[in-house]
Amino acid sequence: MVAFVLVDLTDRVALITGGKRIGLVVAGDLAARGVDVALGYARSQVEANRAVDAVRAARRRGAAFQADLSQPAAAAALVQSVVDTFGRLDILINMASVYALRPFADLTVGDWDAVMNVDLRAAFLCAHAAAPHMRRQGGGRIISFSDWVARSGRPRYAGYVPYYVAKAGIIALTEALALELAADNILVNAIAPGPIVAPPGTSVKEKAAVEEATPLARWGGEIEIAKAVAALLDGDFITGETIRVDGGRHLR
């Protein structure tokens, strides 16, 4: 009988793009497991610094770097800053995202680019910059973020065309990179969150409607994403997968 042993993450280095809410909890959970954590942020410096404080409270190294990932050169510069500061990069978590309601008739090229450049292109560029560092170390992990709606293969909400397309693209990118990087022992997966935390401004009625539509009848909370990240980091034989964390929401 083979015993199950958790992967030792002590002294590994992770980069999380997007340090608000869920990113903060993921950062703290990784630090509790011995990981040094870097946060990349565009405008949310206060939230990123809060995540760094959580990392340091766990007696791990933490740092925040400003990076506007809508700009092509920012991804490579961010990854290099992390490597220069920490000496290595083992884990990349592509969490940065733009989520904005805009009716299709009102969409502009700028609206389209604003979402695609951050939600999809930045994930590719960060992975492209991180892979050589991981390769030199004998492997690594890349985890990107899709969405339960895109993972389910059908749009459910009008007004989010670029977002849905970008998050569907993350699934394809994950599969393609998993194949490209398998020989380098770089495992590439994605997480597709469902009702984890309610967006700012969500009414009590709206929250209750989501709970009613979710088989587990509740919002998951940020820790469920941290658990999913940990599971993908612990595994050595999962790559090219997009895992829903949605309380069964896709079943209804």
List the helices and strands and how they pair.
Blueprint: E1 13-17, H1 22-32, E2 36-41, H2 45-57, E3 62-66, H3 72-86, E4 91-94, H4 109-136, E5 140-145, H5 148-151, H6 161-181, E6 186-193, H7 204-213, H8 222-234, E7 242-245
Parallel strand pairs: 1-2, 1-4, 2-3, 4-5, 5-6, 6-7
Helix pairs in contact: 1-2, 1-8, 3-4, 4-6
What does this structure look like?
The protein has 252 residues and is α/β, with parallel strands linked by helices. It has one domain (13-251): NAD(P)-binding Rossmann-like Domain (Rossmann fold, 3-Layer(aba) Sandwich). The chain has 8 helices and 7 strands, in the order E-H-E-H-E-H-E-H-E-H-H-E-H-H-E. The protein has a 7-stranded parallel beta sheet with strand order 3-2-1-4-5-6-7, with helices on both faces. Helix 3 packs parallel to helix 4 (109-136). The model has no long low-confidence stretch (mean pLDDT 95).
CATH topology: Rossmann fold
Distance between the termini: 39 Å
Tell me the CATH superfamily.
Answer: NAD(P)-binding Rossmann-like Domain
Order of helices and strands: EHEHEHEHEHHEHHE
Helix content: 40-55%
- What fraction of residues sit in β-strands? 15-25%
CA-based shape: globular
Q: Which strand order does the major sheet show?
A: 3-2-1-4-5-6-7
